[in-house]
Amino acid sequence: MFFRKFFAGALIAFFIFLSLPAAFIWASAKTLSDEEFYTEQLSDSLYSILIEEGQNFYADFKVLDIPESKFRDILMRTIQRDDLRGAIAVNIENLKSVEFDAEGKAKLVINLSIFDEKFDKFADQISRFWFETLSECDNTKPVYKGDFICIPEGFDGDDYRMFVASELDKQIFSDFPSEVVREIDVSETFLKNRGNVLEFFGYLLNQFYLVVSLILLLLLLLIGLLIFKPAIRVFKWVMKTLALASAFVLALSFSISYIIPTIVQKFFEGINLVLYNVFAHSLTVNLLQLAIPVFVIGFGFWIVGIIFDENEDIAY
Question: Alpha helices of 114-156 — where are they, by DSSP H?
């Protein structure tokens, strides 16, 4: 009986070892395939980063002679949260229609053109502020020398806005792409006529889940065969396996949410974990939704099995 328990314990350890990456991949895939994750949680975090980086840009790039609070106000009125949500939603819809060609290649295009009109609006807002606050240039003042320091004589509001837009485009906006293109290349034989990119990766995940589920079921079966009888003891060991595996998944979710960020911040002071935190939150929620019911059922029936297993001197 000792050797059977020993091998059953080894199989339980292997079951736990395999269930952790399986649960992590399942929760990650559930997060990354959730449109609401992108249009709500992720877009809000990206918006906060966008505003923060805009202010960092303001501090580093001296061409913008404007109070920081005014700059932030203009930036937030130019690009709003709903603008970013809309841009993300458009790109998600575009992604759904991306197809692999006959050679197994596909182009992913991230459309950033929505920011083109925002640049124009930003330049308009900046120029309005300068036109209202700056004085006209005299013969000793340059119109532009690293800063917009005065308004050219005879310029009306429209002339000045065109001038500012042109200079900002040369200094800042011209380097910003209207789209980002990435190419995916998979084996033509591996593709097997699954033309849509999302369908293809969904197929890969389903195959992964199928293989892992079969392996986990096989391990439970082997544990049951090793214990063999009585039936209540088999039931108890299977429930113990599920309880222990789900407990480790709960520990994994705790590590993702609390331990890893603490360690990273300790060794990398000042690092921005906004994107990590929003992904970790969604990942943790999915892990908890998976692990808590399994743990409650497994642990509860494990205790029941211990109580009713009267044929064993020491309960395991």
Answer: 114-133
Alpha carbon distance 203, 205 (integer Å)? 5
224 and 237 Cβ atoms separated by less than 8 Å = yes
The confidence band for 37, taking pLDDT boundaries of 50, 70 and 90, is confident
Q: For residue 216, which of 279, 280, 283, 290 has the smallest C-alpha distance?
A: 290
Q: Return d(Cα 276, Cα 294) in angstroms, integer.
A: 27
CB atoms under 10 Å from CB of 287, counted, come to 25
The helix/strand/coil state of 112 is: coil
pLDDT band at 136 (very low <50, low <70, confident <90, very high): confident
pLDDT band at 314 (very low <50, low <70, confident <90, very high): very low
The DSSP code for 151 is B
- Residue 141 DSSP class: S
Are 295 and 233 in contact, with CB atoms under 8 Å apart? no
Q: Using alpha carbons only, how large is the chain's radius of gyration in Å?
A: 30
Nearest 5°: phi and psi at 14? Answer: -65, -40
Q: Rounded to whole angstroms, what are the CA distances from 94 to 89, 110, 211, 249, 259?
A: 9, 8, 31, 35, 37
Q: What's the full length of the chain, in residues?
A: 316
Q: How far apart are CA 220 and CA 12, in angstroms?
A: 8
The enclosing H or E element of 111 equals: strand 105-111
Strands 105-111 and 179-185: antiparallel
Contact 134, 110 (CB under 8 A): no
Which H helix or E strand runs over 279? helix 274-308
